[in-house]
Design brief:
alpha+beta; 3 strands; 112 residues; Arc Repressor Mutant, subunit A; elongated; three-stranded antiparallel sheet
Amino acid sequence: MTGEPQEQQNTQQGIAEVEQADAVFSALGHPARRQILLSVHYRGTCSAGDIARRFECSWPTTSRHLSTLVNSGLLSVEKSGRQRVYRTNDAVLREVLKKWAGYFESSIPSSE
């Protein structure tokens, strides 16, 4: 039964990749989160307060959106004094999109 540990490792890696893609696509599924992500990307960094003011969201709503973006890996957060400063993790988005697009590059045999 050679190859089973490698096969199990590949399966676990595949599951992790799908879960990350699910988290990223779910985070991108809300228009406010897409706008927040673009805003932080173009500014380089942004504090939570700046984001809340810019989008005129209540603090709990902003906090939930930021938490979703951080949990998906699309944003990272650092504490700077009393502020939380957010920046984009562009590599995460690129990697998920690259892998997802790769699934459609190879042809699937027809069932005909």
